[in-house]
Amino acid sequence: MSAAVAPAPSSLRPSLVALGAVTSVEFLENGMVMFSASQIMTGLHLSAADFAFAYTLYGMAAIVMLCKHQWMVERLGYERFVMLSLAVFGAGSLLCASASGLGLFAAGRLLQGLGGATFFTAGRLAINELPAESRFAGLFAFVGSLLGGSALAPLLAASLLGAGGWRAIFAFGLPQVLLVAWLARGRLSRAVTPPALRSEEHWGWLIWLCLAVFCLQYAIQAVSLAGSQPRSVALTALVSIAMLTAFAWRQWRKDRPLIDYRGLFQFRYLFGLAMYFFGYFLIGVAGLMLPVLLHGVLGLSLLATALISTCGLAGTVAMALAHLALARRWPWHRFYMMSGLALYAAGCLMLALMDPPAGWVGLLPATLLIYVAIPLFLGPVAFGTFSGLEARVFSHGYQVKNIVRQLGLSSSIALTTLLLHLLEHEPARLGLLQGASELIVDTAVQAPVMLVASQQIFALMLLAIIPVGLVVMLQRVFR
């Protein structure tokens, strides 16, 4: 690995540290929140619907800010925008830490979404500001920090829960943003765009966008809630899609839109977005189901669950960095994508057929396979999706990609929660889906209901990977 990446010059290292620190903020905080969800709900006396509402506000704020990202950067410059976002994120963390009910908690999560949406895109685009010969080192810092933050999140969350309860999860955000602000100060671009070249949009249409995104996020989250009305959810989703279509059509016709869809309308980029959605869907399922198995089914402590999750995610970091080095010399994108899907499918098969008496040790091989599979699949997608975009629309393309990331994660968590509930409480309603999973899992064997439900979800994921694998194998876009 050391031979693949030249040591960064001492003058460049502070910029790489700043890039990595900014990128890690959202991944670390969101990883801790998802790991601590049950403790947060218990501490605040929130129902699943309440927690989903707060998550919906976070998603809405994040997507709207991603749409507005370039607009803000053009007027503030990256350094001011990141510092402002850190302040908003810190204020949201403070509200969440001091909340005693849904109101303050939901407001805090909304502010965290407004601030946190900035960091991933800002970190990636900061790479383009580096000297050309240093951009590969910047890419290593970017990937290592985002995955490193995700890997550290479970262990840090378990430690904070033990030390100060659920409030410590959010109180940690205050020293975190202060440290990141100190590291990033003076290391990001302060350039602003001349007024004549700035993107334009009326604030009334931004409110329209907020409402449309809220409806879409609400519909996605409502799918996972017991008692939700399918017709009402479907109607909400259709209304949101119609509103978003109107917004996109307006953007298409503008000379200086918030997002230049005309420059993004090419098959390579659209195919990459579809692969991104599926990749983040896989991440969401793994992130939700593996702690359920370890803590909920096998009864491991939160600390033990966090240690296993962190070890698995450390494998993700190692594989991602290894893929970066290998792909630079051997850019066999289709081979890496197929390898990632095959490893994820093998992990799903092992978990679908797992034997509970084997204990948590028996889950380690499957867990490691799933965690190392994800960067093998998403790495080539990241390499290939943006390679055909012109420089003038690159930032627009990355904004849209991060919106797709948010939707993929939201959809996977909502659908997996719904399937878990139905398989556990109302298996008769699943019909063909349950029958398909039973091709792999023998549910006639007596086992805890939660275990059987988990096994069937992994079996369904295995079946879902098959058609995507065929598409990847036959496609000629990422070769």
Automatic annotation (TrEMBL):
Keyword set for this entry?
Cell membrane, Membrane, Transmembrane, Transmembrane helix, Transport
Question: By its UniProt entry, which InterPro entries does this protein fall under?
Answer: MFS, MFS_dom, MFS_trans_sf
Coiled coil (UniProt feature): none
> Which stretches are transmembrane?
44-69, 81-104, 139-160, 166-184, 205-226, 232-249, 270-294, 300-323, 335-354, 360-383, 403-423, 457-478
> Where does this one sit in the cell?
Cell membrane
This protein's major location comes to: membrane
Name the UniProt record assigns to this protein = MFS transporter
